Structure prediction request, 155 residues.
Amino acid sequence: MSAEIEARIKDLGITLPQAAAPAANYVPYVISGSHLYISGQLPMESGKIGVTGHLGKDVDVATGQRAAELCAINILAQAKSALGGDLGRIARIVKINGFVASVPEFVEQHLVINGASNLLVNILGDAGVHARAAVGMASLPFNAAVEIDAVIEIA
Prediction:
């Protein structure tokens, strides 16, 4: 299964980055029993925040979806690190929580977080189907447009 997941990642033209180190007093992930909890991931790309700003002001939905995709890529990078390089141990993405920096009038957070949801399903198949929340926020760390955390069931 791990080789199949890696092939899907490659077919999508994605290279998983090194898992990002925490930016404050927390750990990037915790394994408890059969669950892997991934701390909030920002839309990091090439070592910096790839998409900054607020949806409904200076970021459009398509760019917000790209930010959510980057967050999902970073979630998978953290999972790969936590699981000793074996993404095949992912039994299911249980839930993601998507936080979207947006102006009060913006009401399409759910469309933004689809960027992450779609990518996880495209890479993991049925194991990528998950429950989720998509929440508007006044601001996020480092002016990131999106932040997403995840709960993953592991084998």
Observations:
- The mean pLDDT is 97.
- Residues 2-154 form a domain with the 60s Ribosomal Protein L30; Chain: A; fold (CATH 3.30.1330.40).
